[in-house]
Amino acid sequence: MRGKPWRGMVGGMSTPASPSDGLLAIDIGNSRVKLGWFANPSACVSPPQTTALPIASSPLPEPGETLSGSAAELLAGPLAEWLASLPAESLQIAIASVCPAISEPFETAVSTALANAGIGFTVLRLTNSAAPLTIDVEAPALVGADRIAAAVAANCLRLADTPVIVIDIGTAITVDLIDSKGVFQGGAILPGPTLAGAALAERTALLPKVLPGELDRSPDPVGRNTEAALHAGLYWGAVGALRELIARQRDRLPRPPQVLLTGGAAPGFARLIGGPDYTVRHVPHLTLAGIALSATMVDTAPVSDPPT
Ligand SMILES: Nc1ncnc2c1ncn2[C@@H]1O[C@H](COP(=O)(O)OP(=O)(O)O)[C@@H](O)[C@H]1O
Ligand SMILES: CC(C)(COP(=O)(O)O)[C@@H](O)C(=O)NCCC(=O)O
Ligand SMILES: [K+]
């Protein structure tokens, strides 16, 4: 997270990557690692958009191939197989990690798999100090790289003079505000529903664990057994927290924000957290796209508007 972005060869590879072979974005989260291969990650050069019309098609780069799972699942086989199947002879790799313990073994596994497949590569570990946006918080270097990557992507979807609230529902939930000039202002962090359920199971004698993927999309708020009550509390509790945080952040804004939603547990929440003057758009690959954009923009102009 700290220091200069590191760009160089890893694993003794001798074939340098050429940008034309595409970019591999890696998002190392606390539950899952997400990988996306972008054939053509184009820099977001002319943000923000100047039209107030609804966005018909995303200007974000879309990954041509994706892979996700826990680090252990991926390292057991799928990672090497997937990397070897990429239509590339050389790759630029960009990594954003919020889980340092996983970063090194995962990078080593990626290096080994690419070496075995005869694919050359360079590696860029994203740091906040090189991020193509202004981070206006007490300690910019300490903000999660995933939050910053998502904010970079959000800046590309941002309409002119319009603030954005970015919500990521993963292990944790983050609700971050990017102001109408594209500056990251900070936000809120709370447990994701799966983590909240796991914490309840761990710290109580009688509550069972609610497994990932088992959360109902619209549970009865009056659960008639323990599991049903947990589903009601975890789901509607998260909905309520999100609605309140968006509303309170919106209260500070001079005009309605765009609201973008991402993260592994995001499906099922978008339709419930819209407000009187804002709608919510679900962008599944927001963070991966932000990582790809950050890598292409790391040596170019910032996305956020220059200070006036
Ligand atoms: N089908 C699903 N329904 C609800 N939650 C899910 C589903 N699949 C994954 N999740 C949850 O999404 C979270 C992982 O999302 P992700 O964005 O990858 O998190 P992280 O970045 O923290 O690793 C986990 O808490 C997991 O339980
Ligand atoms: C808030 C997070 C735990 C979210 O991680 P995730 O749920 O995506 O695994 C992560 O962004 C993080 O560790 N951040 C560092 C502290 C901060 O952002 O202020
Ligand atoms: K995340």
What labels describe this entry?
binds adenosine-5'-diphosphate, six-stranded mixed β-sheet, binds potassium ion, 308 residues, five-stranded mixed β-sheet, 7 helices, disordered N terminus, Nucleotidyltransferase, domain 5, alpha/beta
Report on this model:
By secondary structure, this protein is of the alpha/beta class. It has a single domain (6-192, 235-297), classed as Nucleotidyltransferase, domain 5. 30% of the residues lie in helices and 20% in strands. It contains seven helices and eleven strands. It has helices at 71-75, 78-84, 100-117, 145-157, 193-203, 226-251, 286-297; strands at residues 6-8, 23-28, 33-38, 65-69, 90-97, 120-125, 164-169, 172-178, 184-191, 258-262, 280-282. The strands form two sheets. Strands 1-6-5-2-3-4 form a six-stranded mixed beta sheet, with helices on both faces. A five-stranded mixed beta sheet has the order 9-8-7-10-11, sandwiched between helices. The longest helix is centred in the last third of the chain and has 26 residues, at 226-251. The chain binds adenosine-5'-diphosphate (ADP), the ligand CC(C)(COP(=O)(O)O)[C@@H](O)C(=O)NCCC(=O)O and potassium ion (K). Adenosine-5'-diphosphate binds at residues 29-32, 170-171, 192, 194, 212-213, 215, 263-265.
